[in-house]
Amino acid sequence: MKRSDIALTLAGVLAATMVSACSPSAEDTVLLPVKNDPSISFRIWFKVGSQNDPVGKEGLAQLTASMLTDASTTNNSYEEILDKLYPLAANYDAATSVEMTVASGRTHRDNVLEFYPLFMDALLRPAFREEDLERIRSQMLNYLENSLRYASDEDLGKAVLYNDIFAGTPYGHLTAGTVKGIRSITIDDIRSFYQQHFTRENFVIGLAGSYDDNLLEMIRGDLASLPEGHGLQIDKPKPAPIDGMQVTIVEKDAPATAISMGFPIDIVRGSREWYALAVANSWLGEHRNSSSHLYQVIREERGLNYGDYSYIENFPEGSRRQMPPQNVSRRQQIFEIWIRPVPHEVRHFAIRAALREFRMLVENGMTGEDFELTRNFLSKYVLHYAPTTMERLGYALDDRFYGVQGSHLELFRKMMGEVTLEDVNSAIRKYWQYGNMQIAIITKDAEGMKEMLVSDVESPITYSSPKAASVLEEDKEIIRFPLDIKAENVKIVEVGGLFEE
Amino acid sequence: MKQFLITGVGMAMIAASVPPATAQSIFPYQHEKRVLENGLTVVMIPMESPGLVAYYSVVRTGSRDEVEKGKSGFAHFFEHMMFRGTENFPGPVYDSIMTSIGADANAYTTDDYTAYHLNFAKDDLERVIQLESDRFQFLHYTEADFQTEAGAVYGEYRKGITSPWWVLNEYMQNLAYDVHTYKHTTIGFEPDIKAMPQAFEYAGSFFSRYYRPDNVVVVVAGDFNPDATFALIERYYGGWEKGYVKPAIPAEPKQRAPRDGEVRYGGKTLPIIDVAFKGDPFDPENSDYVAALLLGDLAFGENSDLYKKLVIQEQKVQFIAASTPMNRDLPLFEIYSMVKSENDIGYVKDEISRVLKQFQTVAVDTKRLDDLKRRNKYSFLMGLDTPDNVAGGLARLVALTGGIDVVDGLYAKMDEVTPDDIMKAANKYFTPERRTTVVLKGAK
C-alpha cells in the first residue's frame, strides 16, 4: 500500500463512528485507551537488545535501531522526513537497552494521518544508506570516546560497574557498544541484524491515548509485512560470582571522586518479595529523594556531596531523571549504590560511610517505624512514576516483559498495604549481603586510593563547620570501618582505554 | 504556630478573575488569577488529572538578582537552604511529613527565578499549603546547617564541571557581559561558592529582601477546587508581610565591537562553537523580539538548510542548534555547534555568518514560517498533559510576567509574524556589535 492510500484509508476509518470498546489485549498488543487524551502514543517493542550484539560487533542493536528512526527510508530521505515531521511537533525514536528495543512516537490526534505513515516507513522500509550509517556511527563514537569518558564521571562510574559485574556475559558491554565494535559495523551487518530480529513474531504493539480500533488494525496489518521469524532468544546471563570486595579504579584527572558499587540480585519485579525489598531499598536510597538514608548520612548531615542513592533495578540516566525509566527491563538485575562525586580527600571515608550503613541494614533489618513511614511514602510516591499516557504505556509493556499480572504500579501500591516488616527483613537477608561486592571508583591518584583501600588505614575527616556530637561520634566508627579489600582484587585502569573493545 | 490563627476574614482579595479558555485562546484549560492583600499572586488551573495536584511556588528572584560582589550563586544556595526547616517544622520533621505525603518534591534555580515544586495526592493539598507557607515565612536554620549545606552545593558544582558545556557557558557569560549579573552562571563563580560558608548573615538579608509575598507567585494545577484552595492559601499565607526590595541590577553598557574568546576544557571533547548575540528582554509586544524567537529555529533548527547541509550532507558537525531564551533582561541569542574537526571551525563559523546574512537579505519561505507556527502550537498543546507539565511549563512566563495571561497574547503575536518581521529581527539582533564568539577545545 502506498502512503497516500494509507492516509486515505485512515482518514476514512477515523471519520467513521468511534468504537468505544477496544479489543481485548491480544498476544501481540498492549493497549491503553485514554479517550480524553488529545494525543496518541505508540511504542513498538522488538524483543532484541544489546545482549544480541554479535561478538566484535558490540553496539549493533542500538545502531540498527537508530538506522530505522534517525535515517532515510525508501520513501523519504532523512531530510524529507525531518521536513514532514516538523510542523507536526511529533517525533519518533528508538531506545535500545540490553533486552529491549522500543520504537516510540507520539502525535496530537489532529496529526495522526500525517504522522503514522512516516512512523511505519521507519520500521518497515529503512533505506540503510551508507551516509546515514557514517553520521550515526560518528555520534556513537563521540559518545564513547568523549562524552562518557570525560563529560560525566558519575555516568562513567556506573558504566564501569555494570561492565565489570557482567563481564563475559551478553550483558557485559554497553548498549552503546565498544569503539572497535562500532567502527567495524557495516551496512550488511545492519541489514542482516534487522532481518533476523525485526520480525513478525518478535514484536509487541503498544498503543495508547485517543486512538481507535481501526488504527490498531492498521498497525497490525502493516507490521505483518515484516519477515517471518522469532528473533534469537538467548539465556539469562549468569554473572560470575563476586569473591570478596573487587575494585576497579579509573585513573583520571577528575575534579572529584565518583563511586558506584553493587552485586547481582536474583529477583525481578512482580513478586511479593520484590516489593518487600523495594521498601528496604527506598529507605536506604530512594533515587533523588531526601528520604534516602544514604543521602541523609552523607549529604544532609555531612555535606560531602550532592546525593547518595541505591537501586534494585537498572536506572540509566540517573543524573538526568527524577523518576524511574521505562523499557529498560532485564531478567538479571543488580543491587547498586551510587555516591555522587565527593572531594578526593573524603573518598575513602565516603565509601566506608555507605558500606557501613548498608551493612547495618543487612545485619539489623529495618525498624518498625522506618518500615511504616517508607511503605506509606511509596504507596503514594509511585503515583508519580508514570504521570503521562506515554509513560503508563511504557510500564504496561514492562508488565508484559516481566509477566506481571495486571499492573506493576497498581500492584506496588497494593503490596504496600500487604507486606510486613518480617517480609522486608527476610527479603533483605535473602537477597542482600555486604561481603562480596564490585566497586567502581573514578578518581585521580589511583595508586594512592588503592593503597588506602588495601591497607585499610583510618580515614580521618575534618569539617569546616561544626557538626552535631552524634555525627562526630559516628565518625569514629566510620573512619575505621573495615573494608577488607585485598591488593590482588584492585585493578587500576586508564580512562583513555575504556570501552575500546 | 501563629500563622495558623489567621483566617480569611477581612482579607479582601484583589480580584482578577480571568474568563475561561475561549475559542481564540490557545491555552486549553480554564484558569484564574487572584492576588492576596499582601501581594501574593495565586494562579489556579483546575484540570482533569485524577487525584493529582501540582503546586509551584515561583520566586521571581534568580541569579540575576545577585548584585553584591562575591555573592554569585546565592539564589541557588538559598534554594537548598529552604529545605532545612523552620521552628514549627524543623528539617527532620519537615522531611518526615514530606515522606509521609509521598510527594514528588524538589526545586530549581534559574537566572530569573527560583521554583519550588511538589506533585502529590489531592487529599494532601492543605498539608502542602501549610508546609509551604510555613517555610516561606519562617525559615530557620543554624549556622552549622548553613555551612554543611554549602558543602552539598560545592558538590553540585564539582559534579557539573566535568561537562564541557558547563565550562563553555561559564566562559561565554563572563565574556559577553561587562557588569550585568548575567555575567555569572546560576551556580555562581567557584571562588564565591567556596566562600559561601562565611555568608550566614548575608543569607538572612537575602531571605528578608526577596522571599516576600509580593515577589512570589503560587501556581496550582490539577484536581482541586479553586475556591476552597484559595481560602486555604489566604488562611495560611495571609499573615506574611510584604516587603520585597527590588535589587539595583547594573545596566549593561552597549556593546560596541564583536568579542572573541577561546577556552580549554581539561577532558577530551570535539570542539564547540558558541556564537552569541545580545537580544532584548522578554516583551510580547516587541514584534522584533517575538520574530527573533522564531528566527533561531528557522535558521538553525533541525529542518533548516544549514542543519541539513552541515549535519546530514557534509557531516562536518555533530549538531547545530540555536537558543533564543526568554529573560527579564537582555539575554544571549546563541547558536551552538559541535564540530568534528578543528580544521573546520573557521568554515562552520563562516557558514553561520552566511546564513545570518541570508536571513537579513532574503525573506524566509512562507511555508516554512507557517510550519513553525503549527509546530509551536502543537508542541505547546502536547506539553500540557499533566499538572506538573502545565505548572512547570508555565513557570518561566509566570516569573517574567507575574501570571499566565501572557500566553495567549504571545502565541497570537507569534501567529502574526511575517517573513518581513523575521528579516527585520535578523538585521536588528544578529550584528557584529552584539556578537560574542567562543570556541571551546578539548585536551589534546
Structure description:
The complex is a heterodimer of chains A (501) and B (444). Chain A has helices at residues 3-15, 60-69, 78-85, 112-124, 130-151, 153-165, 179-184, 187-197, 213-223, 272-285, 293-300, 347-364, 368-381, 389-402, 408-418, 421-431, 446-455, 469-478; strands at 29-33, 39-46, 91-96, 101-108, 203-209, 245-251, 257-265, 308-311, 333-342, 437-443, 490-494. Chain A has 501 residues and is of the alpha/beta class. Chain A has two domains: 3-223, 2-Layer Sandwich (Cytochrome Bc1 Complex, Chain A, domain 1); 245-497, 2-Layer Sandwich (Cytochrome Bc1 Complex, Chain A, domain 1). Chain A has a six-stranded mixed sheet. In chain A, β3 and β4 (101-108) form a beta hairpin. In chain A, α1 crosses α4 (112-124) and α2 (60-69) crosses α8. The longest helix of chain A has 22 residues, at 130-151. Chain B is α+β, with helices and mostly antiparallel strands. Chain B has two domains: 2-237, Metalloenzyme, LuxS/M16 peptidase-like (Cytochrome Bc1 Complex, Chain A, domain 1, 2-Layer Sandwich); 259-441, Cytochrome Bc1 Complex, Chain A, domain 1 (2-Layer Sandwich). Chain B is 42% helix and 17% strand. Chain B is built from 15 helices and twelve strands. In chain B, β5 (104-109) and β6 form a beta hairpin. The termini of chain B are far apart. In chain B, 49% of the residues are buried. Mean pLDDT of chain B is 91; it is low at 1-22. The interface between A and B is large, with 74 and 71 residues.
Query: What is the CATH architecture descriptor of the largest domain in chain A?
Result: 2-Layer Sandwich
Elements of chain B, N to C (H/E) = EEEEHHEEHHHHHEHEEHHEEHHHHHE
- Indicate the CATH class of the largest domain in chain A: Alpha Beta
Briefly note the structural class of the backbone of chain A.
alpha/beta
Q: Which sheet architecture does the biggest sheet of chain B show?
A: 7 strands, mixed
* Shape verdict of chain A: globular
Unreliable runs of chain B = 1-22
From the 3D structure, determine the CATH topology of the largest domain in chain A.
Cytochrome Bc1 Complex, Chain A, domain 1
Strand proportion of chain B: 15-25%
